[in-house]
Protein backbone atom coordinates (compact mmCIF):
# COMPACT_ATOMS: atom_id res chain seq x y z
CA UNK A 1 0.00 0.00 0.00
CA UNK A 2 1.30 3.46 -0.92
CA UNK A 3 2.75 5.25 2.12
CA UNK A 4 1.53 8.63 0.83
CA UNK A 5 -2.02 7.33 0.78
CA UNK A 6 -1.67 6.06 4.34
CA UNK A 7 -0.64 9.56 5.44
CA UNK A 8 -3.94 11.10 4.32
CA UNK A 9 -6.42 8.33 5.12
CA UNK A 10 -8.51 8.65 8.28
CA UNK A 11 -11.38 6.66 9.75
CA UNK A 12 -14.58 7.55 7.87
CA UNK A 13 -16.58 7.54 11.13
CA UNK A 14 -14.47 9.42 13.68
CA UNK A 15 -11.85 10.98 11.34
CA UNK A 16 -9.21 9.50 13.64
CA UNK A 17 -5.87 7.94 12.64
CA UNK A 18 -5.59 4.50 11.11
CA UNK A 19 -2.88 1.92 11.76
CA UNK A 20 -1.76 -0.23 8.83
CA UNK A 21 -1.53 -3.93 9.73
CA UNK A 22 0.52 -5.42 6.92
CA UNK A 23 0.08 -9.05 8.01
CA UNK A 24 -3.73 -8.92 7.93
CA UNK A 25 -3.96 -6.31 5.15
CA UNK A 26 -6.21 -4.06 7.23
CA UNK A 27 -6.40 -0.47 8.40
CA UNK A 28 -7.23 -0.35 12.10
CA UNK A 29 -9.18 2.38 13.89
CA UNK A 30 -8.70 1.86 17.62
CA UNK A 31 -11.09 4.72 18.41
CA UNK A 32 -14.06 2.95 16.81
CA UNK A 33 -12.58 -0.53 17.29
CA UNK A 34 -12.92 -1.36 13.59
CA UNK A 35 -10.70 -2.96 10.95
CA UNK A 36 -11.06 -1.93 7.31
CA UNK A 37 -9.90 -4.53 4.80
CA UNK A 38 -7.42 -3.74 2.02
CA UNK A 39 -8.13 -5.62 -1.22
CA UNK A 40 -5.70 -5.40 -4.15
CA UNK A 41 -4.05 -2.35 -2.51
CA UNK A 42 -7.44 -0.58 -2.27
CA UNK A 43 -8.76 0.17 1.24
CA UNK A 44 -12.45 -0.63 1.67
CA UNK A 45 -13.52 2.30 3.83
CA UNK A 46 -17.24 1.55 4.29
CA UNK A 47 -18.27 1.18 7.91
CA UNK A 48 -20.77 -1.57 7.07
CA UNK A 49 -17.92 -3.58 5.52
CA UNK A 50 -15.58 -3.12 8.51
CA UNK A 51 -14.79 -5.86 10.98
CA UNK A 52 -15.15 -5.30 14.72
CA UNK A 53 -11.90 -5.73 16.63
CA UNK A 54 -11.72 -8.42 19.28
CA UNK A 55 -10.76 -7.57 22.86
CA UNK A 56 -7.46 -9.40 22.29
CA UNK A 57 -6.67 -7.16 19.31
CA UNK A 58 -7.54 -4.04 21.29
CA UNK A 59 -5.40 -5.14 24.25
CA UNK A 60 -2.48 -5.93 21.90
CA UNK A 61 -2.54 -2.42 20.46
CA UNK A 62 0.98 -1.11 19.88
CA UNK A 63 1.87 1.44 22.55
CA UNK A 64 3.22 4.76 21.33
TrEMBL record:
Entry GO terms, CC: cytosol
Highest taxon in the source lineage: Bacteria
Pfam families: Trm112p (PF03966)
UniProt similarity note: In the N-terminal section; belongs to the LpxK family. Belongs to the UPF0434 family.
Protein name: UPF0434 protein DFR42_11335
Gene source species: Undibacterium pigrum
Amino acid sequence: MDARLLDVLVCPLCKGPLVHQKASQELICYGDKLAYQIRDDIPIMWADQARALTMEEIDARPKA
